[in-house]
Amino acid sequence: MPVTSDVTRPDDGDGDLPINELFYSLQGEGRLAGVPSVFVRTSGCNLRCWFCDSYHTSWEPTHAWMDVDEIVAAVAGYDRADHVVVTGGEPLLHDAVVDLLHELDARGYHTTVETNGTIHRDAPIDLASISPKLANSTPTPERDPAGEGEWAERHERDRIDLDSLSRLVADHDHQLKFVVTDETDVREVEELLSRLRAVAHVPIRDGDVLLMPEGATRDRLAETRDRVAELAMAHGYRYTPRLHVDLWNDAPET
């Protein structure tokens, strides 16, 4: 199957979803860190954070188009895994991800969807791992890894969608995962939580709020994680590691 960089579904109908990677590893982040899981990584993103740790799903998307049946068959090939993580990019961009989640649910898999929280889909999801993007994620001209800040305005406009966030937390077991670096970021987290709690129809518990260090390499994590651990303790939120980076650095399919 040819690998392309066009995330628009091909006119000939060949393939339902643009898949960048499909692999077996350990969940590296969040409350299920350490759980053996199959990862289905779709390509394409509506935000493009400057520090994106899956560059080839966002800034330079590459993938092969696969049918839902092909994806489910590939997942089933990892017979020791009963957890599936659907991630991206932003997986909820794609209509067919709903069909994939129904098929996985019908086969008894526990599904985690890793999303930036800007899109809601009516789909069976066991854990919505929602990572709202703070101002520190905006690809300003100084930080843009691929251009001169062309995505900054769109990113800043779209990065928070309270309606989608409130529907996601109401419909699914969830965790809210924030990439933070300093006290300013935590203040922004608390301001967003206040806004979300004002409109959500379910409680947003501090125990479901996770602070995560920025860094896609061991060297970068070594610079950021101690400070984030201190912030988590100071504010009563959970700290989440990035086990896959600790174990395998920035190797693909981890």
Provide a descriptive summary of the structure in words:
By secondary structure, this protein is an alpha/beta fold. The model has no long low-confidence stretch (mean pLDDT 92). It has eight helices and ten strands. The longest helix is centred in the C-terminal third of the chain and has 18 residues. The radius of gyration is 17 Å and the shape is globular.
Euclidean distance between termini CA atoms: 22 Å
Give the strand order, joined by hyphens, for the main sheet.
1-4-2-3-5-6-7-8-9-10
Low-confidence stretches: none
Element-by-element helix/strand order: EEEHEHEHEEHHEHEHEH
Biggest sheet overview: 10 strands, mixed
Structural class computed from helices and strand pairing = alpha/beta
The helical percent reads 25-40%
How large a portion of the residues is in β-strands, by DSSP E?
15-25%
Q: State the shape.
A: globular
Radius of gyration: 17 Å
Number of strands: 10
